[in-house]
Design goal:
By secondary structure, the chain is an all-alpha fold. It has one domain. The chain is 75% helix and 0% strand. The model has no long low-confidence stretch (mean pLDDT 83).
Length: 264
């Protein structure tokens, strides 16, 4: 429990900064909604953009003059920001002891490595949940302030639930890389590179259906934004497969961290 509280305290400042960034992201994004909701020149420009440009901007087939369509436009960037936080947190929560040269102090305590991992991962999970909750609350508040159409709270819940699953995937990937690599300090950059690659794949596969097979490599494509906007529930099969992927990365994290010679 002491390690758990220690990690919460150590990550407190970073959590506040990331939370404020998410709030400002939602605030600035929703502040642009009035430019498109009136159906004026700004909305007309979007409608006249070539399909390729619409896809790259994240618009796709969404009607950005509606709140649900505009939130679907904003959401991928909220998601990738939250995923970066999760990946960096997962990679650093284990690696920082070796980075800060405090490994010897930690492993000489009368606690097992399994306990150390569990305490650290639980503390990181609390941080991820807080980021998700902050994004949800700020989204509900800002959408309520600007929305003059149908209530989209249920859609926001589905969007943020899908974001939480993506966060968990990249968090567990980051922790696995940190436990597996001989130089765990490099795990953060590798996890982030994989994340950016996954995001790039999600954009490429939006351009052509011939590359849809690549979607399996991108957690950002596991859930359909179009289905969410249309009121359809998240795919239970994809949720189960995603959680199995998280469980696999987590098991490997325990295995390799317990077996690896730590840098003291």
């Amino acid at each position: 429990m002491n390690i758990f509280l220690r990690e919460l305290k150590a990550n407190r400042k970073a959590l506040i900064i990331w939370s404020v960034c998410m709030i400002l992201f939602v605030l600035s994004g929703m502040g642009k909604y009035t430019a498109y909701s009136g159906g004026g020149a700004s909305s007309e420009i979007f409608n006249k953009l070539p399909f390729t440009m619409r896809v790259l901007l994240g618009i796709g087939s969404f009607d950005v003059s509606t709140m649900s369509g505009f939130y679907a436009l904003l959401f991928p960037y909220l998601e990738v920001t939250a995923a970066i936080h999760a990946a960096l947190l997962g990679s650093s929560i284990l690696a920082k002891e070796e980075r800060d040269k405090t490994t010897e102090f930690l492993i000489t305590r009368p606690i097992s490595r399994t306990t150390i991992i569990t305490s650290k991962l639980l503390a990181a999970l609390v941080n991820i949940l807080i980021i998700n909750i902050v994004t949800f609350v700020s989204s509900i508040i800002m959408v309520s302030a600007y929305n003059k159409g149908n209530d989209i709270t249920s859609e926001i819940i589905l969007f943020l639930l899908s974001m939480l699953i993506v966060q968990l995937i990249f968090f567990s990937l980051g922790s696995f890389l940190s436990a597996f690599m001989k130089k765990p300090k490099a795990s953060g950059s590798i996890a982030t590179s994989i994340l950016i690659g996954g995001f790039a794949i999600s954009k490429v596969t939006d351009l052509t259906e011939h590359l849809n097979i690549l979607n399996i490599l991108s957690p950002f494509k596991y859930f359909s934004y179009v289905d969410i906007v249309e009121g359809k529930p998240l795919s239970l099969g994809i949720i189960i497969l995603s959680l199995l992927l998280v469980a696999t990365f987590t098991i490997f994290t325990y295995y390799f961290y317990c077996k690896r010679d730590l840098n003291i």
